[in-house]
Records
---
Amino acid sequence: MGPRCESNTCRRRFQSSTHRTSRGDVRRTMTPMGKPPITITCECGETKSVAYGQRWVCDRCHRAWNTQQIPAEEYEGLLRRVRRHKLEVVAMGAIAAAVLIPLIVVVSSGFVILIPAAMMTWLFLVLPVWRRRYRRTAREAPRWELHPE
Ligand SMILES: [Zn+2]
């Protein structure tokens, strides 16, 4: 076996990322992408979506709102529900692949014709149901009373 530079760079990249995530402050700045934003409605009627932990100063009346006033455990609960929905979709995809791939590889390549049907089922049956449930979770998200700073 010759020198494998590709796996080397991979490993190096992996190490640096685990090193980075082990430091709490950097991890916080790295993750807000996947987190549901918090919509703040100002007393003057302005609204704005911000990430949890962020501070927002209203453009119109200059009141300052701080999402850190939201108890961390309540926000974590919301995150858990959102994450569970995402896991459901991943799990359904994995199950479909776990059924289809062995059929095609082991039984017969003719089962490839099932893939369009599976994708149609996915698009028109699974995703709409899932989206509705996801939206309901978003609607049932708790409301918090913040106090301007
Ligand atoms: Zn305002």
---
Amino acid sequence: MPKTPRTLASICPYCGVGCGLVLETDGEKILRVSGDKNHPSNFGRLCTKGSTSAQALTHPGRMDAAYVRNRRDQDPVRTPIDQAITATAQRLQTILERDGPDALAFYVSGQMSLESQYLINKLAKGFVGTNNIESNSRLCMASAGAGYKLSLGSDAPPGSYQDFDHADLFFVTGANMADCHPILYLRMMDRVKAGARLIVVDPRRTATADKAHLFLQIKPGTDLALFNGLLHLLHRNGKTDPDFIARYTEGWDAMPAFLAAYTPEYVSHITGLAAGDIERAAQWLGEAPNFMTCWTMGLNQSTHGTWNTNAICNLHLATGQICRPGSGPFSPHRSAQRHGRTGDGLYGPRSAGTALAAGGRGAPLCRAALGCAGRPHQHPLGQGHGGSVSEDGRR
Ligand code: SF4
């Protein structure tokens, strides 16, 4: 039968930016991959990984069938996929009936699609009845998820990709977006070329830092002191939003006294940054009609990663820079579930059901950041702000 060339719309298999692909096939094999110009994540752009994804798909060494090992001392046997699925289900069923649900554990991946995450969680928790499901995503995102819940009551960035097209200032901290999120980085730089400011906080002079209007080369591990120092200055400079604070947050009353110690000189001593640069960053944040904070593993993978997210959310809550186009805390990640709403999949603590069962504030912050009709109900501001802070800004 002659092959019929076809063009298919698909999604890049690699990371959570979720770029749209166009696959050109000869009816059997993929011949070429290009960016989907109509896709809202990438508008035709692809990074090296996405643009070379066809090479892996068509490599002759790729396994193109299931293999089943019938006995441990035997080699796996090539098996039609339907038979392999049936055999797997039968083996799982045998274990389940013999040993109960907790005899089964599932280890899944942040690289799975949202839909497959939903299904595997449904299989594990809903059908099998085990809570034994874990993901590689915990390492990257546990602290950010906990920080979001602590501050906003829900584990999800309150912004979206469209915010990148509206922000007037990008505060990028602990993230080298040029290398690690190249497509989002290009989208951000489009906005920077159109006049938005870029502040980068990083101990290293990265490719992203090279493009910054203000580069804050901070001592490792001292981010909290900087964020508290910026909030101190925003408050001192009259750049907080008292109406927003009064209507949508709680805990602010204790903040000014807590922040009082974080003078530019004190923060300079902790972070190694020039006091003038700290003041300039605060001035720019205060002047910006809208600003976004983007951070990743530089802040998350830390003994105080939860507080880092909390302190970033505080900057946005105190200034009302949240839930409106071009503003908000936004933690970009490179696994499929780590962008956007993640609560219904992934590992246990990120499950919406788990949050509610634990008595947490499980209600979503806001249904959508763009065009969001309502403001968030409750934003505990400054939770975790108390307690002592050591010289390097750690709690
Ligand atoms: S940024 Fe991520 S989703 Fe986009 S092309 Fe690159 S690897 Fe694929």
---
Amino acid sequence: MADTQNAAEITERVRVRYAAAARRVQTGVTGSCCGDEKDVVSADIYGADDVAVLPEEAVVASLGCGNPTALIDLHEGETVLDLGSGGGIDVLLSARRVGPTGFAYGLDMTDEMLALAQENKAKAGVTNVAFLKGRIEDIPLPAKSVDVVISNCVINLAADKSQVLRDAFRVLRPGGRFAVSDVVADGPVPDALRQNMEAWVGCLAGALDVDEYTRLLTDAGFADVSVTITRRYTVAEAGLDPATLPEGWQAGDGKLASAFVRATRPANETREKAASSPVMVLRENVSSDGCCGGGCCS
Ligand SMILES: C[S@@+](CC[C@H](N)C(=O)[O-])C[C@H]1O[C@@H](n2cnc3c(N)ncnc32)[C@H](O)[C@@H]1O
């Protein structure tokens, strides 16, 4: 976790970066999770069926690194919360899946992103959606009020991931599911890269190590934790300009990956029970050229 001053600086740099990203999308420039242009991380993450039911602008606004709505079965009538909802693509997809008796919330701290999401909501013509302003470290919803927490390429950006995971646990009902796409580190990332602000706002420096992710989820009270790596990439493929990075950044190549992270809030919970539940880390279906097999990206 970053110290308080660092945390405030990280949050502000992230906000400025994604405010600019929202403005670029509004002026017709294709987005990407990490860099300024469409990159390997954000390419081809939604299937044709998903894209077909959304306004084009919502698809263009996608800045994710996976498709969290494909990770889990969403049921009629459920309440879904998307942490760091950006232009709203995963909120709109969730709203369709939970139907008119369900509801989908998007939470984001960046005004420009919230404005973009509201425009996309209007174009999609959905009513069972609300976009909330706030930080994912301090979710403005009551305890035990949602069935599913999703997120797409956001938790890596947070300065205090442990707090994010604890607050996600708080708002989930017992038995609720956590289904997140995120950038993770699978192996040591050089300290110089970890400390680089450009690499942080570009989704790399803040990527949690896979083992640390599972530990923080377990500490927060989650059970059935699993991390599945779906796509590996180099620092340059993530859209960052190597010229802006510190010496030695090359040692981070191949350590950074997109992953599906799943967990549940136990239905009958005690912290001890959650802590003793199995943890799974899967590294199948991955190739290092940015393309994954086994249909995990389709
Ligand atoms: C990489 S974009 C992903 C957007 C969206 N999930 C998608 O898939 O298109 C990151 C988003 O998370 C938001 N964000 C980052 N850190 C946040 C935080 N601590 N609290 C709330 N929102 C945050 C940014 O404003 C931005 O909209």
---
Amino acid sequence: MAAGDAADMATRKRCTECRQRFTSTARGPIVQRVCGAACRASRDRKLARARRRREIVEFRAEERVRQAEHRGQPPVCHAPSSARNQPELLDEVVDFVDRSLRLSRAIMMRDITVICRSKRASVG
Ligand SMILES: [Zn+2]
């Protein structure tokens, strides 16, 4: 084998994506693994997929942040409380306080118990 043949073998490679033979560039004869831009994009997607599979917890955390940013909202760690119940509950509390100010302590305690039971039943 001549010295020229060895140099040719160092720069002639097989693409890891399309399996076609290619000549690597002068800058990348050792690390270049793909023949062109299309195969580079394909290889990048494959490596990213492998990383997501390998680091699934990190990927999901990053994905939550990315999606929240895309929607223009700050990321949340849990679902917000039901908005439907909040005005209803506020009205109930205002009514309850108004009546309590007028009525006796015993009736106030009875009302508190009724509200707590109804809220517990609707939640659980
Ligand atoms: Zn290729």
